[in-house]
Amino acid sequence: MNFSEVFKLSSLLCKFSPDGKYLASCVQYRLVVRDANTLQIRQLYTCLDQIQHIEWSADSLFILCALYKRGLVQVWSLEQPEWHCKIDEGSAGLVASCWSPDGRHILNTTEFHLRITVWSLCTKSVSYIKYPKACQQGVTFTRDGRYLALAERRDCKDYVSILVCSDWQLLRHFDTDTQDLAGIEWAPNGCVLAAWDSCLEYKILLYSLDGRLLSTFCAYEWSLGIKSVAWSPSSQFLAVGSYDGKVRILNHVTWKMITEFGHPATINNPKIVVYKEAEKSPPLVLGRLAFPPPRAAAGPLSSTESKYEVASVPVSLQTLKPAADRANPRIGVGALAFSPDSCFLATRSDSVPTAVWIWDIQKLRLLAVLEQLSAVRCFQWDPRQARLAICTGGSKVYLWSPAGCVSVQVPGEGDFQVLSLCWHLSGDSLALLSKDHFCLCFLETEQGVGTAFGQRADHT
Amino acid sequence: MGDWMTVTDPGLSSESKYISQYTSETKMSPSSLYSQQVLCSSIPLSKNVHSFFSAFCTEENIEQSISYLDQELTTFGFPSLYEESKGKETKRELNIVAVLNCMNELLVLQRKNLLAQENVETQNLKLGSDMDHLQNCYAKLKEQLETSRREMIGLQERDRQLQCKNRNLHQLLKNEKDEVQKLQSIIASRATQYNHDMKRKEREYNKLKERLHQLVMNKKDKKIAMEVLNYVGRADGKRGSWRTGKTEASFFLRNEDEMYKILLNDYEYRQKQILMENAELKKVLQQMKKEMISLLSPQKQKPRERADDSTGTVISDIEEDAGELSRESTWDLSCETVREQLTNSIRKQWRILKSHVEKLDNQVSKVHLEGFNDEDVISRQDHEQETEKLELEIQQCKEMIKTQQQLLQQQLATACDDDTTSLLRDCYLLEEKERLKEEWSLFKEQKKNFEKERRSFTEAAIRLGLERKAFEEERASWLKQQFLNMTTFDHQNSENVKLFSAFSGSSDRDNPTVHSRPRQKKPHGAPSGSPVCTSKLTKSLPASPSTSDFCQTRSCVSEHSSVSVLNTTPEESKPNQVGRECTNQKWSVASRPDSQEGCYSGCSSTYANSHVEKDDLP
User: What is the pLDDT of residue B488?
Assistant: First the structure.
């Protein structure tokens, strides 16, 4: 495992291009595009103000930089550095900006969700979509980029519009049986749309592409409902995390619940592997100090090492007591992610913020629990294999795979507090983002060697 | 009468004293008193008796007393004490006979009375004890009654309390229910209110939004604009088409078409998947069916023999089915009838199999129950046999060791008393010398062969690698000890040549080590402190070590041209071992690759021993 040098960064804006060739990062008002492998600067663009959001177009040719404070979007081309485009939303303001899947249209949401403006880079045409709903996840494109589903609110009722992205024509428009629609999400195969109600009511609705209601699911009433939703990459399962600390898995045939994963604070089953991060200060042996190892000097001296230990069951995890009188209590399953092969599901229960739970979807049971020393900030699956990267805001990155767990100290002077991370498309490298720096972590795997061998074997 | 009195038991009399005393109060006649006095014949009372007697009848009042007695007796119905008077004037004479009769009768009466009294007294006693017992019982029962009554009261109290509690709880429950209902209604009303408010707010908000929209959008805001250097081509290379009313409709239709195509594709894909799954399942079913048929067909004779009608018919059905199905190969058809047929036949077979398995289970359990003891016995017998065998072996081994020890001791003993034995030995040797020499030459040849073999073996062993060598060394050290015992007498006692050869053969088979040889010889020198023995050996065996010097032994062995191997092997093994340690170190370094390499690149990482520990997990 190798680490690149540390580069400057602001507002955690660092993204790999969809084709994996480039890496865009922002420093204040500057946008830096580097080669993802060599990390040499390919382009440097200067925006008018501090950049608050960046996004690559799907074909990796353009990058949009949103300057929300100014209501501006600036678009840069990678092929033609001199090309520029500036979209000004004027007094309407700007709260969100995103690419359409074709990479030639930009969808800007104005302040107060008055409308969504669709700007075309090909023609002068501008389209408006009225009544977008201000919610958690109101705009979603199908994986193939053909359709856009949009949550709307008109006359105190929720609607969903399905638009064709090629010409922005309305394909379907239907009302959803929700009190307050909180989010919509396409299944990866683009044929089923999941829509869920706000946390006040547990309700998830499944619509076909042609607007038919396929099924509704409600696990319980009179309690806080859905907190997170995730489709499996195979479109076979829909995982619904809720405030009761459970994940319910729905199947794609009957849309009924297959199983229910609870997140108990104590783990008794000896089949479950509990990895416990343990801090250990480096052994201060006088003899060793007399012979300081030359390589160790490069490493951080102050930070303590940490490693995983396999805890023996029963294990009781640290739980937070939620404040019942506050809004958005820290309970329930707040984060869900399926592995790319749909075999594993990683979850985080907000009442046990230090733990990541990994479930085996093939056997529908809990496989492993990783208990960290501090609260888990974010986790993301390797896009190529069942490998999970976790960060906790400390100076370490944690990787889990079915084979085991590893904790890696990020090198560098001072503390590099990993607040977020994102994988490269190939799964070979990982960008680690701290408050004002980022670095790349290259994972040299035996797999590369293995494939090389395999190729050679194929040739011979 | 005095005799009788003495017969009375003092204990009894003392007991009866009280009773008699209190009976005496009722009757105050002197006779009765007397009788009492007779009864209570305790010594201290005797004086009193005398005084009493003296008081009743004295010399002066004989007449009076007689008359008194007469009167008394007549009133009790006894004949008069006096003779029939002939005349009134004449003094009535005392009839002695009558007196005696009366006395006798009185005595008899007395005895009877005493008996009766005794009976009565014992009865009385019995009754009294009964009474006591009954009283005790009564008291106890009364107590019990009291306690149970108290208990009952307590229970009643508790019951009452519980009922009270229950009532309270019911009340509470009711209250809670009410509360819940109330809360639910409150929630509902709040929800409706909230929704209402929300709607109102939202309407207001919408109005504001609308107004804002109008204000912002319709102002012809010049700022809302896009500056583009030049328009880029579409990603698909097509040109944007203009929208007109006509094209819009066609667009719409096209979009619809596409959408349905996508949906259709999806459904087709899913159907295909389901079909595949079905096919798989059918295959499994078919296989199961076949296996069942094959499993059940050898058993079909048995049930038929048993004239088990149902299974027989079913099996025949199965056969038919199997025939049909195999003939028609209708598996691909998902027709209703075929499916039913299939499921039915499978079900039938399954039932048969189940019953069969159950039967088998029963049999097995029966057999188990019956034959458990037998098996146990058999196993025990086996065990015993085994142990016997082992004991025999141990015995043999012990005997061997004993003989070895004896031989050793003999050797030592002969070594100790030198002169005579040396003489004896010498003559003995002269006779045997020739034979020994012959044997020795033979032995040498054998040894050479062995050396050759060994060499080849060592070469192989060297090739075998490092771990093996370490192991061999261990083994060699072990063998050293064994050879120590064996070789000592195989050289010195020609009679044991056979034994030695047997052992050497085994050792060769066991372990083709080379360096075991020179080491055996080193201890071999130890018993050679006896001059006789060494002299003999030097004669017979030039290569044999006369001293315990190891170098010398080596040089001796060199004559047999085995030195190259013998010398090198232990030395070679040494560097190898060092190399192994080195690799070990390397390995230990590599076992923490991340920490080391991490240091290289300025990071350190630690792997949890998850691989190992996970494997341990079930």
Answer: 53
Predicted TM-score (pTM) of the model is 0.57
A1-130 architecture in CATH? Answer: 7 Propeller (2.130)
Give the residue extent of every domain in chain A.
Answer: 1-130
Among A100-114, B313-327, B407-421, whose mean pLDDT is lowest?
B313-327
- B186: part of which helix (H) or strand (E)? helix B96-217
Neighbours of A154 (CB within 10 A): 12
CA distances from A122 to A17, A62, A128, A146 (A): 21, 13, 16, 18
Does any CB of chain A come closer than 8 Å to the CB of residue B207? no
Residue A74 in this model has a pLDDT that exceeds 80: yes
In angstroms, the CA B539 to CA A428 distance is: 80
The H or E element that residue B146 is part of is: helix B96-217
Nearest to B611 among A120, A298, A403 (CB): A403
Asked if B604 is an interface residue toward chain A (Cβ–Cβ < 8 A), one would say yes
Please, which residues 148-187 of chain A have a Cβ atom closer than 8 Å to chain B?
153, 155-156, 164, 167, 169, 171, 179-180
For A225, B486, B520, B532, the CA distances from B493, given in Å and listed in that order, are: 97, 11, 17, 13
The beta strand positions in A12-57, using DSSP E, are 14-16, 22-27, 30-35, 41-46, 53-56
ipTM of the complex: 0.71
- Asked if B597 and B608 touch (Cβ cutoff 8 Å), the reply is no
pLDDT, tens only, B145-197: 999 999 999 999 999 999 999 999 999 999 999 888 888 888 888 888 888 88
Search chain B and give the residue with CA nearest A280.
B606
Region B208-230: mean pLDDT is: 75
